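Subject: sequence -> structure tokens, single chain

Hey, anyone have a minute? Need the predicted structure for the following. Not urgent.
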Amino acid sequence: MPYTVTPTALPDVLLLEPKVFGDTRGFFFESFNARDFAQATGIDLAFVQDNHSKSARGVLRGLHYQIEHPQGKLVRASQGEVFDVVVDMRRSSRHFGRWTGHVLSAENKRQLWVPPGFAHGFVVLSESAEFLYKTTDYWYPEHERSLLWCDPTVGVQWPISEPPLLAAKDAAALPLAQAATFA
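Reply:
Had a minute. Here:
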């Protein structure tokens, strides 16, 4: 199996560790193979969009989700290190409002499966980081929402000591009590 799959504190969110082949020349791994992904996770979805961002230390992107056309995301850091966070936004879930966080880095090559119905974000821990992710639906800016990164109700324990650098939309994000949620 090309992946080791580990359920997280939110059972639908999965941590994937690919099998890496390395020697004195460097390394090789398959970052995605649809057949192997479906076999390892039981998830057989088509990805329709790939995204790539670069951010400096202390940049926090998120917590984002699309209230219509919700996206599943397969995320990873290809350079640097991030603390990646997922929050369950499904009111019918017994895990509603709970979060899980994981360090993703170029070094550990871990990936995280973020199902539709969850808010997602990350903060950069290294000097910079490049972040790649595949999505199961297209980006619709009119349906994008942001959950407040520091909502005390959710209580994410971000591993930062300084206030993060935020986009205007993330600074104006709503707390869970006021945010649009999924059924």
